[in-house]
Structure formats: C-alpha cells, structure tokens
Amino acid sequence: MTHARILHGTRLSGHTHRVQLFLHLLDLPYAFADSPADVRRSAAFRSLNPLGQIPVLQDGDAVLADSNAILVYLAKRNAAGTAWLPEDPVGAARVQRWLSQAAGEIMFGPAAARVSARFYDTGVPPALSQALAARVLGLMDGELAARDWLAADHPTIADVACYSYVAHAPEGGIALDPYPHVRAWIARVQALPGFVAMPRE
Ligand SMILES: N[C@@H](CCC(=O)N[C@@H](CS)C(=O)NCC(=O)O)C(=O)O
C-alpha cells in the first residue's frame, strides 16, 4: 500500500506554495486537498490544525501544521544528511535565521501587502507592510550580493521558505526593480530541478 501524503492548502497561498515547492524539489508525490475558508472553519479541519490555518501536511500518521515546520520535517524525514537542512550548529542557525524572516518580516511585509491588495484586508497597515518589505528585501539583496543562496553556498530550506512571497511581492505593489540580487536569486530558485510555480491567477 502506498504511503498517504496529503497537503491541505490553496493554490494561491504562498505558505502552501513553499511546501508544494519543496515536495516537488524532493520529487515526493502527494495529494492536494483544496482548503478554502469554509473548509478551514470545519470541525474536521480544526482537528488537523486548531488554528484553522493552511498549510497542513498529513504524512502517514503525522499531522503537521506551519509551513516552516513542515519544511523542517520534510528535510529531516526525506532528505536527511543532504544540504537542504545543515546539521552543524552554525549551518542550522543560518537556516533558522531565514525561517524567522519568512515568518516575520516576509509574512507581515510582502505577504500581507499581497493579501491586502488581492484578497482581503489583513489589518496590517500598508505603511508597516511596505516598511517591513523594504527592510527584508534590502537585507536579502545585500547578502545575495555576496552569495548565490540565502543561508549557505547551496540551496537550503531557507531559500524555499523565502521564495514564494518574495517572488510574488509585485502583486502587493512592492516592486523588485531596486533589488537586482534578489531578482537573480529568484531566477536561480526557478531554475532548480523540479521547480513548480505558484499561479498568478
Ligand atoms: N505560520 C503559518 C501561517 C499560515 C497562514 O497564515 N496561512 C494563511 C493562508 S496563506 C491562513 O490559513 N489564513 C487563515 C487564518 O489565519 O485564519 C505557516 O507558516 O504555515
């Protein structure tokens, strides 16, 4: 019997996309359970994630919420000992630094600006999301001037976690023109074998 792996999410959710992207980069098959707001409010979904948020990954008996936690799980479960999640203390901390950026500045910056522009009011003031976006994109651009990848000299889950909302930042009115190294990094991520895009519509 095949191992059941189900990703609950929506096709325009960047948090879902970062998990999808990693599943594709690792060439792991999965079923996709579309989970719009009415599904996320259901008791069945809340039993998977009491926060009612996507993504959720069911992998056999494991039920995992939070996109970055799922990236860590997939790296340890399916790519242990590979470069995707370094085990050494400094390498692991460098990856975690960008996972924190993905859950902080990127979520409340470019991700919030995109959601407010395209879907609903997040409650994050536009001036704050613009300021956070400028802060994190400036940081990324500076670091990517010196290296091809965010946390190491090779791709890691840091790049996977940060990609979706940064690549789609223009949908929230955040131009990437001032950040040439970020744009070159986006192209490098898109050239990875197995890359899958998040739809624009
Ligand atoms: N920290 C979570 C955030 C996930 C998140 O905010 N998901 C959004 C969709 S992109 C969601 O489910 N929003 C509905 C809600 O928060 O009630 C993660 O990284 O997975």
Secondary structure blueprint with pairings:
Blueprint: E1 5-9, H1 14-25, E2 31-34, H2 37-40, H3 43-48, E3 56-59, E4 62-65, H4 67-78, H5 89-103, H6 105-118, H7 126-144, H8 157-167, H9 180-190
Helix pairs in contact: 1-4, 1-8, 5-6, 5-8, 6-7, 7-9, 8-9
Bound molecules: glutathione.
Glutathione binds at residues 13, 15, 52-55, 66-68, 103.
Please summarize what this structure is.
With 201 residues, the protein is of the alpha+beta class.
Describe this structure in words.
- With 201 residues, the chain is an alpha+beta fold.
- It contains nine helices and four strands.
- The protein is globular, with a radius of gyration of 16 Å.
- It binds glutathione.
- Glutathione binds next to α4.
- The site of glutathione (GSH) has 10 residues, from α4.
